[in-house]
Amino acid sequence: MLKSKFRKLLIPALAIGAILMANPAASETIKIGAVAPKTGPLAGGSTVTHWPSIQLWVNQVNAQGGLKLKSGPAKIELIEYDDRTNPGETIKAVQRLATQDKVDFIIAPYGTGFNLATAPIFAKYGYPQITTTAITDKIPELTKRYPNIFFTLGDTTAFTKSVAEILSKMRDDGTIGNRVAMVNVADAFGIELANAARPIFKSAGFEIVYDKSYPLGTQDLSPVVKGAKASNPDAFVAWSYPPDTFGLTALAKIENLNVKAFYTAVATAFPAYQAKFQSAAEGVLGAGGVNPDTPEMMAFIKAHNEVTGKAPDYWASPVVYASLQVLQQAIEGVGNKDRAAVSAFLKENSFDTVIGPIKFNNQNNEAFWTVGQWQNGKFYGVSSTGRPGAKPVKAKSGW
Amino acid sequence: MSSSTRKNILRIRDAVKNFGGLVAVSKLSFDLAEHEVLGLIGPNGSGKTTMMNMISGVSKLSSGRIYLNGEDISGSSSHLIARKGVARTYQLVRMLPTLSVLENVAAGGAFGFSRRWGSDLEEYSRTLLKRVGLAEMENTAVDALTYIDQKRLELARALASDPKILLLDEWLAGLNLTELEIGISLIKELRKEGRTIIIVEHVMDAIRSLCDRCVVMNSGMKIAEGTPSEVLADAEVIRAYLGDSGA
Amino acid sequence: MLEIKNLSVFYGRHRAAEDLSITVSQGEIVVILGANGAGKSTFLRAIAGITPYARGGFVSIEGNDISHLPPHEIVEAGIAFVPEGRGIFSDLTVKENLALGANPLRARKKQSENLKRVLKLFPKLAERKGQIVRTMSGGEQQMVAIGRAIMSSPYILMLDEPSLGLSPLLCKEVFQNLMKVREAGLGILLVEQNAKQSLAIADRAYLLENSRIIKEDLASILVDDPAVQKAYLGGNGDETGFKEKLV
Amino acid sequence: MTKREKRSIIPVFLIFASAALIPLVDTGYWLSISISVVMYTVLATSWTLFSGPTHYISLATAAFFGIGMYTVAGGLELLPFPFLVFLAGIIGAILAAVIGLATLRLSGVYFVIFTLGLAEFIRQIFTWVQTTMGTSSGLYVLTDITESIIFWELLALAMLVFGLGWWIGRSRLGFALRIIGNDEIVAAHCGINTARAKIVLFIVSGSIASVTGALLSPRWTYVEPGIAFSPMISFQVVIMALLGGTHRLWGPLLGVIPFTLLWDVISTFFPNQTTLLLGISFLLIVYLIPNGIVGLVEKIYSNWISGNREQFN
Amino acid sequence: MDIVVIGLLLGGTYALIAIGLQLQYGVARIMNLANGELLVAGSFGAFWFFSSAQLSPLLSLFIVTPLAFVFNWLIYQYLIRPLVRRAKNRGQLEVDSILATFGLSFIFVGLMTAIFGGEYFSYSYLEQPFNLLNQSYGLNRIAAFLVSVVFCVALYIWINRTQTGLTLRAVAVAPESAGLVGINVPNTLALAFALGGAVTAAGGASLSMFLTFDASVGVIFTMKALIIVIMGGVRAINGVIISAFILGFVETAVATLIDPGLTLAAAYLLFIFILLFKPQGLFGGHAS
Question: Taking the model in full, what pTM does it have?
């Protein structure tokens, strides 16, 4: 009984399968998973720099017919989860992608803590994890522990060193003196950056005349800006997060904190920053940067606007996109979905991306933009660890 | 029976209670002898309930002392006083609504003066229920009890720890006359057993038929003390309490 | 005139009031007597619109059908209710309480007139205008409650056990006050435990037993009714003191 | 032990035993889900041990949980892991005792928000200490402890919690708490040291939350204040416990399991509307299951019993 | 002096955050955990009018506030009232309203994310220095402060000096008795809830002039508002206003004189201390 029923069902099923197989457009798909916040405290950042780049990439790859495998083109089937900025959810979602959805590749999550929390799972199931929003000074230790983790954004020391270099350059040019006011948000990487910056600034001959932290979620930053101003600095450096980057800049403008070098970290490169402060943004220094005048970047910005309806930021957006380009080239280089081979390929080869060539040395991309500056409505990289095309830094001339 | 020959189990000395500027009890002193039933009477707001609250540790004395068996309990918390043998009922009945009737009684016997637990406690609680006339009700929901039954239950709970002193705060209030008779006869039995009781009450007949002695309060002060018939005949008491054409 | 016909209240399957029909005219005091749990309070709360009652039940005042209206519309129609526990705003001042009493639209025009009436009835309240009600004595709070009710300019005033917890003297005062209120032309519907005193001031009375009205008559006749005497005024026989001594 | 308890011992044992087999069947997604379930079961049940009978709603779970995480994260280089877990329990207990003593006079919503404020205060202090003394915002917890081991540890903790709950329920302490939950003044007059009883239970529940945090710390690899002390943990525990039902020991479990699964289904199938749909399903549950799941179960059960009775009569 | 002015400005901000919740919790007895989301919704409203119609947030207040009033009225009538009706006691309502508004906050976050997206929002309005006693302050902050003052004064007078205000207080202290003096209690509760929502949204609109916000940020405001309301004692609106200003001063003083990193820690410490010594909050009356 059961057998004959089964047979009855089997024949049409096979027939449908055959039709599907014969259809070249649906020949093969490659499943790719993504986990990042769409809501919760970190959603504000991830919806600017993370999700749109993924959307753009998937859109572009599929428009070209898919990833070029040896067996033919494979369209991307994207499976996304919202982790609501909750590490427990991130862990669960990555587990789900790996063992239930059985995706072929997983895009690294958003944020340092979240990347580290899921690193053991990526390692366990052999998924390459090309992180884009993880900044840490433990890269050597972590890459030793997790053989498939790759870092693209750089480490804290490099970021602070670059800021010190830029400031030194401005001092040597006679633009600024050596009094630096430094503040940081007391969360995530703000602390790490501030701690890394202190000795570096000092050894570069700067005097830190104001050094305070403020908690994430502070409603009024006026005491911070007033305190910084009272210390009469030549340069202002804030290791800040998106909401406070906006708040600090607005207050600096109001308080007329007239320094020739004004640096705020994350979100300075956001299009919203330029949109809000307009001409006042001119000359503001911030973390990241790109060379927006390369044809690749111009194409990226244009496509980003067209596909997602909004502008990319000038730092993490292209890096996330670049990491996906790297993944794409590695998969296409291997020619199949073999994750071990892809990981090996990632370690051995160099990749052409929107931000220039990426090559992993001990799983770490050592060439990245570190400091950018708003110049004529664009956020140019002014310092990097080995990226060509840096613009000369300008002095900020008032608000 | 004269109370002076018996041991004074509770002594109150110059008890004072201020609520902000309001003096609720002012320099009140009286004694309670073993096996004595004392009536504490007086107009509303004269400080009777406040005094009960001080004895049972709900409110702390502003000054003065209370001694239980010679031990100073003026600063003690309610649970310690309860463990030393003082149990009470309340002006407005306080039930434990999510507990069964049996458990309501057991609550009084598990932690107080003489503690019981397990089947011992269960049996003892049943005995008490039977005594107050609630034997059939042991599994009834407390909300379903009638007012007089809730009063009975509260009494059983207070008795469950075998207290040395029982404080009855307007236990008879709100009962109609039939119920009143039941209530009075219940207390009479306790009296026969030789329990030591303080009664706060407005029902004068109950006072007359139950109390050995009365302390009359007005505006926080003691205005008379003596046997019920003595104090109820006292001119000042009549004026302050019962009104000119009273009783 | 307040007229109630066939009012029944159910709590689940339990009947708390069954087919009650009464009338109260302006200028008369009507008392409902009954044991605790007989359904007296439920009845008043149903009339006031707080407790829902079964369909069929009919309530009207001055000929207007007010059956099943929410509490605030019943007040608006001219029934003021002083529940057990008085239902005053104890965190507000006397003045504010009285002002709130005048909240119904009908009463706003006559606010100053009613205020004069209340202060004449209770001169003490005039002295205490700014006092927070919580800090007043029980008797004074009862005055605020009745005053607040009069401020709403009602045809009928309903009171649930106004004497509960008051000393005999205060109790008498409250009943005297009620007589004054009647003189002002209001109708009063009263629920009481204190049969003796309430029958003394009432014009008519209803007896409630097991959620039903078992008897209605003039108060003067019911006082001498042997059944009433037995049930509410104390039995004959050994508790002889009861009847006349119960203040 | 009553007859009913004896009868239920075997099924309870079987449930735990079969739960213990989960890591042998799947070490992937289902294990992940199971860890969430057990974690919230432990947190919600231990929360209920205190809050169920006393009706005090505590939002301090995150504080205990975070402190447990930090105990492990901070001490991992100095001390062995099991000792740190034990230490976390002790620290949690001490903190609970202090909070308990401080909050004796608070009631109702004041207690609720006090615990919330306290948890936030602790989080701010941790952040500040790390900023001024530490070298990085977070601490790394790099161990070889696998998810399976974490699951078994949590399961053992869950057994401990249920055992404890059962024991408290039949002890004098449990009876005292039920009385306190009904009327604190009566409780005191019955001779119950209400303050002590409440604090003891708060200590138990706080200490368990700390141990839970300690056990989970290796799973998160990287611990920072914003994540370890996230107020969402406190809220989620309260919500799950309340929706399950707090007047039975197994009530929170009935909240945790369907909730974890429902949330997971929603986040799987509606990644772009997860939060919105969570909210909607939440509202539906509040409106449709007013007395918590325990209430629903008991209603069905009593209907079934009375239905049976009517059949026989 | 600087501390005083900054503290005053911040206190005004906090008053805007907390007054709405005071009305919703203190009067309507709904512990609204979605309060912060409502505030953010107000911010979005102001942002939308500003970016699409160049409408000043100070003007869009006049659109946002009544809209929020109607919206909250509907929420009360259709979502909260069924809970009020079925609640057997105060505790049950408290639990139910916590659960329901928690769900509501998720819904709001979800809706705002769906409509506006998850990114940060910020715009420049009146972002100019305003000189006062030789110090410069943001003009937008001053404007928000004035809005806050107007709201505080208006509400204070309305509640303490008018008959409607009196009925509101009556319902707050004794809802059972309120029906007996002819107050339409359900409507008054709805009024208080809707008014609280309107004030909260208006606060959000004013704050958006200088705060960067996103769809998920509401919970921060909810927590702050809870703390302020409880600190002030839930019953009295003046308690809430005063505790908002105290908090503003303390935070500013700590940030300026000690360490900005301890700002929030100090705020919570203050809160804890106040509750330890005044368990019913600064202006809390008796628990009835």
Answer: 0.84
